[in-house]
Amino acid sequence: MASLVSDLAVEEVLGAPGEQRSRPTRRRIAWWRAVVLLLAAAYFLLPLYAGLRFALQDANGNFSFSSVRAIAHQPGLGDAFWLSAELAALTMVLTLALMVPTTIYVHLRLPKLRPVMELVTLLPIVFPPIVLIIGVLHAFPLWLRNWQYMLALLYVVLAMPFVYRSLDAGLSAIDVKTLVEATRSLGARGPTTLWRVLLPNLTSAMVSAVILTLALVFGEYTMAALAQWSTFPVWLYDFFQTDGHVTVAVSMAALLATWVLLSSIVLLDLGRSRRQANRRRS
Amino acid sequence: MTNPVVASNLPAPGASSTGGGEVVAPRPTPRLAITPVLAMAPFTVYVTLLLFVPIGAVVLLSLQDDQGNFTTANLALLFHGIYAQGFLNSMRLSAASALIPAVVGVFLAHAIATSRFETFRRLVASAAGVFANFGGINLAFIFLAAYSYTGIVVAWLRSAGIDLYAHGYQIYGFDGIVFVYCYFQIPLMVLIVTPALGAIRPAWREAVSGLGGSTWRFWRHVGIPVLLPSILSGTLLLFGSAFAAYATCQALTSGTVELWPIQIGNILDGNILAGQDHIAYAIGTGMLVVLFVTMSLYLLLQRRARRWLPS
Fold first, then answer.
1. Do residues B124 and B209 make contact, with C-beta atoms less than 8 angstroms apart?
2. pLDDT tens digits for B259-308?
3. How far B123 CA lies from chain A's nearest CA (Å)?
4. Which among B16, B50, B104 is the nearest to A191, CB-wise?
5. Could you give the count of Cα atoms lying within 13 Å of A211 in the half-sphere of its Cβ?
6. Contact between residue A11 and residue B126 where contact means Cβ atoms under 8 Å apart
7. What is the pLDDT of residues B40-75, one digit of tens each?
8. CA distance B250 to B267
9. What digits encode the pLDDT tens for the residues A158-193?
10. What's the pTM value of the predicted model, to 2 decimals?
């Protein structure tokens, strides 16, 4: 849920570089802003600092890199990480294969269906993962539940809300109809139009969809745990009982990776909105 | 729309047909010979099989006994004992983890939006985007490292003479969960409210002060009414997100609090006597009802909130 909204809103927050903002006189109220911001900074940064300190401690509480070094040779971590990586790859391929053609088609031929699509792709938010997985565990045949990539099928559903919105925004930003008519009048057929005109225009939307999917698969605990697949988050949860310092070290590394990935989306969006602003101005 | 003049000049109309000749034949335009039904089929089938069928199964099973006969006995269990308690706890937890972040988020968003440093605003906005996605078990472990009984921040406060745990606080309890949830709920609220704050035009403020109104009057009669739909819909979204959350809470408490999602998890993990599966389905149905109502209200308010946003 969070990812969907933030993805939308970051665009709205950052995507308005040229617009004027409310700038009331603010000399009198400067102190409360300082207090609010300081408290927020303490709340948001303290746990990160503490996590870092904790990760860089040995069992006796002394400073040491032993926990970080120990990450590399923990039993099961490699397998769990590899399973999550495979699931992520499969999820990305399936998601793009399913959503890109559908979204383009809806934009081109069935614009009336867009509100319906918006509603349907919002449903995975209304249906929480914990409820979805108990349904899946009952309704799916045994061979499918025992297939180690079964989770990828479900992650496609979980990824739908933000993947659809990302692609929809990408397609709304370009004039699809004109582009398609132009390519057609130049003699190009459907597949050529798709491959050489539409997809290149959707690259940044697809990249951010892929990154969000990656973050989703590597962070998803609920479904994997209840379906009893030892993915990366499930391994981490189980290992916390064994060694808290190593677990926190891995958690910090995972948060750092998420941070880098998500920041790159924000930068991507920023670049895109700047380019569009420039285009509009010229 | 397809230009028929251009289209008729094209060679081999319908050459890209997928074999449905009878569909293409009557049409002079060389459209992709993919009918709407065919194009929407993969998506529709996928969503049906992987979303509607499992969810439908949960609702159906909550209305059946072990022999498959129709019964409302499972759902009736939700109104008694620990499952009713689980519902009340979930509602209380979600309300607290929606209202507190909503209020803090509005103030924080206002503090950020009125800052005169452009770079700072951008930095905080992207930080909010990232923090709003920090949830799950990693967050729980980091908070445990900081605020559990042996946590680092707790140890600092203890050496400063403040013993949090002596005052009944614990990160594994109700307050602790709310405290952790705020970590992703506050940034989420900031992201929701910031565009709405941007919609408040300086001219309105000048108009109010030109008519002799104070800052208080401006917020009372202009600012808050304009912001209210955004604030309310944001609060509902936070409520839904807290109500559905399982992973963070499970990692924080190891399943010791009686919340609806945790109760489902415990039944499935086999911590509860076997043969209670139907209660899990009943709780699942209950959660669906609560979230359905929440998200419907959210969508309604969202529509209203958009009225003031620059499109």
1. no
2. 999 999 988 876 655 567 888 999 999 999 999 999 899 888 888 777 76
3. 10
4. B16
5. 24
6. no
7. 899 999 999 999 999 999 999 999 887 888 888 888
8. 13
9. 999 889 988 988 888 888 888 888 888 888 777 787
10. 0.81
ipTM value, please give it: 0.80
Closest CA to B62 of A215, A49, A134: A134
Put residue A131 in one of left, alpha, beta given phi > 0 → left and psi -120 to 50 → alpha. Answer: alpha
**Interface with B, mutate which of A4, A10, A134 (most B CBs under 10 A):** A134
Confidence of residue A146 (pLDDT cuts 50, 70, 90): confident
Cβ contact, residue pair A135, B57, below 8 Å: yes
Spell out which residues of chain B touch residue A101, defining contact as CB-CB under 8 Å.
39, 42
Distance CA A170, CA B192 (A): 21
Q: Which residue has the tokens 């909503």?
A: B102
Chain A neighbors of B184, CB-CB under 8 A: 2
**Contact residues for A102 (Cβ-Cβ < 8 A; gap 6+):** A117, B39, B40, B42, B43
Of B137, B187, B265, which is closest to A226 when you measure between CB atoms? Answer: B265
Find which of B44, B112, B134 to mutate to test the A interface (most A CBs within 10 Å of its CB).
B134
| Inter-chain CB proximity B3 and A20 less than 8 Å | no
Q: What is the 3-state secondary structure (H, E, C) of chain B?
A: CCCHHHHHHCCCCCCCCCCCHHHHCCCCCCCCCCCHHHHHHHHHHHHHHHHHHHHHHHHHHHCECCCCCECCHHHHHCCCHHHHHHHHHHHHHHHHHHHHHHHHHHHHHHHHHCCCCHHHHHHHHHHHHHHCCCCHHHHHHHHHHHHCCCCHHHHHHHHCCCCHHHHCCCCCCHHHHHHHHHHHHHHHHHHHHHHHHHCCCHHHHHHHHHCCCCHHHHHHHHHHHHHHHHHHHHHHHHHHHHHHCCHHHHHHHCCCCCCHHHHHHHHHHCCCCCCCHHHHHHHHHHHHHHHHHHHHHHHHHHHHHHHHCCC
Amino acid residing at A167: L
